[in-house]
Design goal:
The chain is about 70% helix and about 0% strand. With about 180 residues, it is an all-alpha fold.
C-alpha cells in the first residue's frame, strides 16, 4: 500500500467528503480513521492535522453536512436577493444540480441512534423549513398554506432522487417546473 499513498496533505474537506461517502455506503460504524486513510490513500497520521479523534470527526462531519448541504443555500446572499418565486426555482435547481439531498437519508438513519446526529438533522430541518416558510409567506400564503407548502417542498426535494432513481434529468427538470407552478399558485 505504501506505493499508492499520496504524498501531499489531504484537506479537512477531503477527509469530511470521504467520511460522508463511507457513511452513505457503509454506515456510521464504518467511519473510522483507518478506513478513511485507506480510502484517501494516505497514512492515518494525516487525520490528526484536522481532528482530535473520531468523535471530533463525527461532530465536524455533521457541521460540514449542515453547512455544505443546507446553509450554502439558506445563507447565500445572491439567492436571498431574488424574488420569492425565483428563490424557490433556484433552490430546487441547485438541490438537483449539486445533489444536496444526497446524504439526508443516511444522516436521518444515524439520527435514530445518536443524539448528536439527531440534533444536526433537527437543526437542518429547522433551517430548511424556516427558510421556505419565509418565502411562502412573502408570496402571500396564510399560515396553514405556508406550512403545507414548505413541508411538501422539503419532502419532495429530500426524497425525489431516492424514490425515483431512474428519472432522467430532463424529466426531473420538467416536473420541477410544474411543481413550482403548483406550489406558488
Amino acid at each position: 500500500m505504501s506505493d499508492n499513498r499520496r504524498t501531499q496533505r489531504v484537506s479537512k474537506s477531503e477527509w469530511l467528503e470521504a467520511a460522508l461517502e463511507v457513511l452513505e455506503h457503509e454506515g456510521v460504524d464504518a467511519v473510522r480513521v483507518q478506513r478513511l486513510a485507506r480510502k484517501l490513500q494516505i497514512s492515518k497520521s494525516g487525520f490528526y492535522w484536522h481532528f482530535k479523534d473520531r468523535k471530533d470527526l463525527l461532530t465536524q462531519l455533521l457541521d460540514y453536512w449542515t453547512h455544505e448541504y443546507t446553509e450554502v443555500l439558506s445563507e447565500n446572499e445572491l439567492l436571498l436577493s431574488l424574488e420569492p418565486r425565483e428563490q424557490l426555482s433556484q433552490i430546487a435547481r441547485l438541490v438537483d444540480l449539486h445533489n444536496l439531498e444526497k446524504y439526508d437519508v443516511v444522516i436521518h438513519a444515524w439520527a435514530k441512534t445518536d443524539p448528536l446526529a439527531k440534533a444536526a438533522a433537527d437543526k437542518v430541518m429547522k433551517i430548511r423549513l424556516d427558510f421556505l416558510r419565509r418565502v411562502f409567506r412573502e408570496l402571500g400564503f396564510d399560515r396553514e398554506q405556508v406550512e403545507m407548502r414548505a413541508v411538501l417542498f422539503v419532502v419532495y426535494h429530500s426524497w425525489e432522487r431516492t424514490t425515483f432513481t431512474g428519472m432522467s434529468d430532463r424529466k426531473r427538470a420538467s416536473l420541477r417546473k410544474l411543481r413550482l407552478e403548483l406550489l406558488t399558485s
